[in-house]
Structure formats: C-alpha cells, structure tokens
Amino acid sequence: MAAIAIVIVSHSKQLALGVRELAAQMVQGQVPIAVAAGIEDSENPLGTDPIQVYEAIASVFSDDGVLVLMDLGSALLSAEMAIEFLPEAQQEKVYLCEAPLVEGAIAAVVAAAAGRDIHQVMAEARGALLAKATQLGVVSSPLLVVSPITTNIESPTPEIRLIVSNRLGLHARPAAQFVATAARFHSQILVQNLTRNTELVRGDSINQVTTLGVRQGHELLITATGSDADEALEALHALFANNFGEDNVALNSPPAFHHEVTPTTHGELSGIAASPGVAIAPVVSYQPTHVAITEYHVDDPDIEWQRLQAAINTARQEIQAVFSQASLQIGDAEAAIFDAQLLFLEDPVLLSAAHQRILDNHINAEAAWQAVVDEVATSYRALEDSYLQERVDDVVDVGQRVLRLLAGNAAANLHLESPAILVATDLTPSDTAGLDPTKVLGICTTSGSATSHSAIIARTLGIPAVLGVDAQVLHLADGTLMALDGESGRAWVEPESDILDLLTAKQSAWQTAQQEARATAHQPAITRDGRQVSVFANIGSINDVQVAVASGAEGVGLLRTEFLYLDRTSAPTEEEQLLVYQAIAQVLDNRPLIIRTLDVGGDKPLAYIRVGLREANPFLGWRGIRFCLDHLDLFKTQLRAILRASVGHQIKIMLPMIATVTEVRAAKVILGEVQAELNQAGISFDATMKVGIMVEVPSAVAIADQLAAEVDFFSIGTNDLSQYVMASDRTNPRVANLVDALHPAVLRMVQQIIQAAHAAGISVGLCGELAADTLATPILLGLGLDELSVNPQSIPRVKQAIARLSIVESEAIAASALQQYSAEHVRELISISVIPPA
Fold first, then answer.
1. Out of 299-303, 519-523, 695-699, which region has the weakest mean confidence (pLDDT)?
2. In whole angstroms, how far apart are CA 619 and each of 600, 608, 816?
C-alpha cells in the first residue's frame, strides 16, 4: 500500500490544524499529515514560513510521494522555496497541488489511505469540488464532470441492493469508509443511487461517491467486476449491516412503551421527534430579538475596531460562563459546542477580515461583523453534509451575541415564572443550555432537526422536544394547553380527553422509571441477595467530575489524563497537573480517585514529540507505558504531580497497556525514585498510595497471576482487550463486527483476570464500555467483579440493573455465557434469562 503523506500550508495555523483534524478523522490517522501554518508573531500571526514548510515536508517525507496543499498568496512561494532546501533526490517526490485546501485534503487522504499512487491522489484532490458543485448545480469545469460508466451488459455482473439506514446517510465519514473498503479489492466497484436515479460512479472515488447525495432510506445498487467481486460485495454489505460503526439510537432514549397514541386526531401537529418524553402544560411563546444592523460611514476606523474587540472579549467571557454552567448541567461532551464557539471568536482569519472591512470601507463595527459572519454562515450552508450545514446555528448564535453587545442590549431572558411548554421558531444552543428543566417542560419549534446542537442539549437535559411543526403554532395565545410526545414527534393543541389519558399514562411510566433510576443512583448498588458492587465514573476533565458526583458516582475508576497533554504545543507542567488533580480530588470529597498515567503514542500522538518512523499498526505500537518509559521526563513530571496531589485524598495510580512484569517493575522503580526525590526535598505525599494496572493486552491475561503479585489492583479495559483477543481493528468495517466484548473468548479472559486477582487478594474493576451495557451486568456480577466504572450518565441505570439482580442468578448466567459459541448467542441467553423481579 502506498505511504503517501500530505502537507497543509496555510496563513492561518488554526485553519490548517482544523483541516488536518477533519482529514485525519476520515481515515482514522492512517495517512501522515503535517502542518506548516502561521508565523511566530503575536501581533500578526498570519503568514507562512519556508523553513517551517521544509520541516513539515521532511517530517513526513515518503519515497511514495508528498502532496502539498496550499491556500493563496505567499503560501505557494513558501512551498516552492521549501522544496529547494530538500536534497535533489527528494525534490522530485514532492508535488505542489492547486486543489482547494479543505475539500482537497479530505479527498487526498482518503485516496492515499486506499493505496493510490501520488498521481491518483492528486487527481482526487483536484476533483474535490465535484460534490459541492454538483449539489449546487454549478458544475461547469470538465474536471468536475462525472462520466457515465459503461458496462458489458452481455455478461452477468454480481450486484447487491442496499437500503441506507444511517441517520445522516453517507456523510463524510461513512463515505470515506465506503471508498476505503472498495479500494481494497482488485475488482472494479460501481455504485448508483437508485432513489435519485444517478449514473453509476466509481466506488473507489471519494468525490464521485459523495456526489451521489445518499441520505437515510435511499436504495443503492452496488456492482463488482473482477476476480474478488463476491468478496468485495460481501465486505461492503457488512459495512452497511454494521451501520458504518455509527449508533442510530437517539441520545437518552426512554424505555419502550407499548400504549401508543392513535393516528391523526383533532388539533394534532406532526413534527420531528427530537427529544423523548411527554409534556402537558400551557404554552409560552418566545421570539428572540435579532439585532437590526444599519451600515454607516465612520471617520475613525480604529475606534470601531476597538469597539468590536471589546464586544468580542465580553462575548468570550459570556460564552465561557455558559460553557462552565453547561458542563455541570449536561456534561463535557455536549458542552463542547461552546468551546467551539470560543474558537470561532478567536479565529484570526475571521478577525482579520472584520478588521480589514472596517479599515478599507470606513464602516461601523456592526456592519463589518455582520458581513463576515454572513460569509461564514453561507459557506456552511453550501456544504454537502447536512450535519455540517446545521452548524450554521452556532455561527449565528455567536454572531448575534457580539451584535447584541455592540448595540448595548441586555441578554434575552428565558426564565419562566411557572412550568410551561416553550414555543418558538427556533432556539439557539445558548438559549437551550440555559433552560431550567423544572420550568421548561417541553419544547415545540417550527424549525430545527434532531441532529442540531439544540436538540442534543434538550435530550441531555431530559426536556421533551418536537421540532419542525407547522408555523401556525406561533400564533397560539400564551396559556393555551398543549401536549407533546417527543418520542413520536407529535403535539396536540387543546388535546381531547382520550389523548390526554394516553399521554398522561405514558408520562407517568416514564417519570416513574426516571425517579427509580435517580433514587437508586445515590444509594449503594446492592444486589437482591446483599452483595455490594462499587460503581465509579470514567472521566476525562475537571468538569466531568461534577457530573459524576451529581449522577451518584462512588468515586472515579478512570481519570484519563490525556486531556492535559493533547491540543497544545508543549507538555503540561508539574504545577498545572497538580492543580487539576487537586481540584478533581476536592470535588470527590475523599471518594477514591484512580489516575491513569499518560496513555498516548501510536494512534494518539503528541504534536510536540517526534515519533520518527511511521507505525504501520499503531495499536500494536509505541503507546501507553511503552511511551512513558521512553520519555522519563514526561513520566516523572506526571508522577510527581500525582504524588503531591495525594496528600489528604484517596488517590491511586494506574499504569496503562501493561504487557510484561518487566514494565511494571520498571515503572515502580521510577515511582520509587520520584518518591525519594520528594522526600529529600521535604515535600509531602501519601507513601501508602496504591498502584494498579490496566489489563487490556492478552499477554497480561496470560500472566495475570504474576502481575497480581506486583500491584494493588487490576482494572480491565475491555475496549482494547476485545480488539487484541479477536485480532480485529474496531475501526476496520470489514472486521469490526468481531470486536464484541460479549464474545465468550473475551468473557473467558475477564474470568481469568478476576480469578487471578482474587487469588492474590487484590480487587478488580472494569472500565471499558462493557461496564455501561446493562445487558452485560449479570455476567460481570456473576464473574465476580468488585467494581464497574462507567460514563457518568450511565451510573443511575447501571446501579438500577445491579439492584434487580442476585449473585446466585448472575453466576448461573455467567457460567452459561462462557459456554456459548458467539456474542449473539450470549445476548440471546441474557434476554431469555434476565427477568425483572416483580
């Protein structure tokens, strides 16, 4: 397979890093991508540096070729100059490409990952505007024309017809997976969107596949011609059957309820089911005031630029406050959209454009700001990917916030006096994040979608929502009774009694289930026959710990410390880490805190560490404890910070990716050296702090008895363990279905680990995704786990599941599960065996 590298050259470092991140996601890091962007000038960071371009090319150089993509102006000159610094033999293997930066990078990495040669990769990059041009109906260049494929109709061609079930259709990532899979075979793969009656296009071209405009429910015809045609079609069929690894289930979906409301009735409005649950309450209309802009001439542009900067700084402070509040209320994952809004405000390209408009045109700050925001919004709307199109909401949200501050207006007040259903044209993410679920019982809007950020936040807050209903709802008088069902996507104005009865019953069942889960969450998880099982949280930031405690966590079973190291240009200092670890321990209030030492390398590289050789299989490479033992400066700094934070807290250290006893002993020697240094300096730490390991490598399972003699506890990482046991990459759609932690082979490994740990008198927990799967709970209890560590939102239902089981029943189910032949058989066994108690 070709090992072609990509270099992105841009005036804006943030732009280049964003393009690299997007491109890397398309191919799961399979293609080396380097960035040369911006200059080291805090006053004017926009620009390009030939030396930086040279270093970027050299860092990823490949004899198969390096493709350099650039934005306008001096980027091209810098790239041309950089090539001259290379040895003559290397110069001829570096290609400058005029393709569009964003679309070209995505097309290039997909083609490179598929093993194309450098000329084919360049051709794909150059044709990258095909999808957008086709979607907008402006195809005019001969480079962008999709030529119909001719086939030999006299000989039968193997084919399959598939219905696309992905909620967002073949958007960017699934399309990239489709192309990567098709490209692995010698046969020619052709694909046609039967629903849209498109031409047949090549299945190994990202640009041509994207132009098919495949949405959920569309039917595709896929043909294969060649020696491995049947295998190719089988692999593609598996890709669709596995949903491209995506989860189509709505976030926080309620348990199934069998009493459904009858079809269309009087006063019924149909819309989009965006957030489950039932709400019955008077309506309150909300229409946000959009700031009206008037453009006018100004004599002093500098004053206008200062006004805009001041408004942006205040907006940044407001968004940071929203982000902090949202993190506590809805968790870091959903609150991250406000982090993205902060980046929008810091975008040097955007700020430079606004500044230039004010200076060149002598116009007021409001007009200049509105113009650049409109340009960004328009570029999002033009994207082919509907999910990305919906990010316009966030752009408008930020834009309006700055305009409001420029106009001197106070923030809109969405605080209701009494419980109600909120009716609006739409809600911004900021609006939604600020809602009080005890007052806003439901949301009904005339626009929006189930994948919008507002819908995601509503689901996380547990507020039922129906979106996209008829605009007549906006004319309802405040106080009009409404009922809505967020699961079916319907709403009723002044509902009749039979509708109210059915919805009230559904609402009651949902509330009962929620109350039971919440009541269980802050109680110990005890089985029906009296066994207590600890339920901890997996967290990856300071804000996560607040959510964990609020959700009933009895401690933190896994603090992923990578967030401290990623997305920065240098490693965090000892003091930075110390403050974070102390802050998390403080929130836990003497509950246990297990800190996993740095787990990067391989598939999670650090930008400021030179890796050297590119790894063909990073999951089997230089990662986890192997990385730390080779970077003692990083490792010792982290150990010092953890030890210093341990005073007065229940902190434990956990070592990742342990494969040998030698690694554990080496890490313990280094820990001992750090402890001696702290003692010599008179710095306090918990000398009895426990040390454990992640058991996620098959070799560690095989020698679990030897490892148990070296450490104080085990934590099983079933995500990686499943991959290694089944020899299957979970990012590879052709084998991803084998990566199932409920496979008996994986479960037998878990049993072996637990038996070795208990024989040595140490505790054992499980912190992989399997721990949050309540279907697996009886097996894990039956195998004898001491603790489960899950994402904070899963804690209530996991505790509830434990309370419904007995150890005796669980042991019988576990014993039977170990004798099954497949994960499917294990699931069938559980569904038959686990009957909720009366």
1. 519-523
2. 11, 20, 32
